[in-house]
Amino acid sequence: MSPHFRRVWAWPAALSALSATGLFSALVSDAWGDVWAWLALGLPLAVMARHALRRAP
Known about the structure:
single chain; mainly alpha; 2 helices; membrane; transmembrane helix; transmembrane
């Protein structure tokens, strides 16, 4: 893989993997799994909100 490919797709791939683990955890676990699900699904939302609300230079 080229460095450009990794630079462009590294964060989206990490956020999608985080979301997938959060969704799976929400479906099959209790207690700490619910906490992980909230964190894993909330972090990508926070990243999107941060970029959406950021002012243009």
